[in-house]
Amino acid sequence: MKDIIILGIESSCDDTSAAVIKNGELLSNVVANQAVHEAYGGVVPELASRAHQQNIVPVVHEALKRANITKEQLSAIAFTRGPGLMGSLLVGVSFAKGFARSLNIPLIDVNHLQGHILAHFIKEPGVEFVPPQFPFLCLLVSGGNSQIVIVKSYNKMDVIGQTIDDAAGEAIDKCSKVMGLGYPGGPIIDKLARQGNPKAYTFAKPHIPNYDFSFSGLKTSFLYSLRDWIKEDPNFIENHKEDLAASLEATVVDILMTKLRKAAKDLKINEIAVAGGVSANNGLRNAFREHATKYGWKIYIPKFSFTTDNAAMITITGYYKYLDKDFCTIDLPAFSRVTFNK
Ligand code: KG4
Prior knowledge:
globular
């Protein structure tokens, strides 16, 4: 049988990435982060698209080189169609279209959120492969999304709960910014939290029905509490940053796990996965492990490099779409906002 070799391209936010998967197995995954945003405390869309333009050719070249694959061997090109920043997406989308047309091979559009979930199906050479069994629940938590998804198959996913305002990662990043820490705040808060007391402070938790989330109240509560404490002690943040980080993280994790527990119990599903940038968080990972022991969940936690944006997850999604012959036409536009079942 002919080898199926997919090149995948991810450019939805501030990471330019390309990966190669051969017959379902990952051969390379190259990610170029964009340091340019650090000075601004957040992603500057125009700078992101310009950096993608500079990075895309060397990143794709490097991914093919590390995989030891020539462009003529490729079976198809998969790309992130959305959601994401329009200017960033356009770089990857246009590159993928031009490259596929020049090679006369099929194009596969990939939903970035589906990619985060299918990161659990990335098979690496020499690494034990234990993917979740369908149907499973996935807590998808990133800088732009917080959702609980029932994953029925590779291409059938239903969102049963989502944030009604900020995403979990966005809330952590904004609180970290208020504390004057660097960008992105998630990894910094994670590191500080490991040395702090998660019960030191209490912040507001939402009362939202069903499986939906809300994080804007927590953000406001964090901001107002800090303001009061700083009035009494101008060095409050510096003196208590570990406890603040640990308490903030514990609140976010509790909000997420409360809803996930409810969904798992109501739907009687005990195959539970976590995905997205915030799934790199050690507090959240520990909470998953504790729930596995306490509630008999079978948990699936991705490898760190597959939590934040990467092309390996886009490429594996492209691989399954290739098996279904689910190709797209060259006139397909990028989309900035969408959930599943586009
Ligand atoms: O999935 P991702 O790379 O991009 C989106 O698609 O949004 O997620 C980025 C988010 C950011 O909010 C970042 O702060 C957060 O993931 N993040 C973390 C950690 N690492 C990344 N949040 C908490 N703890 C971490 N270790």
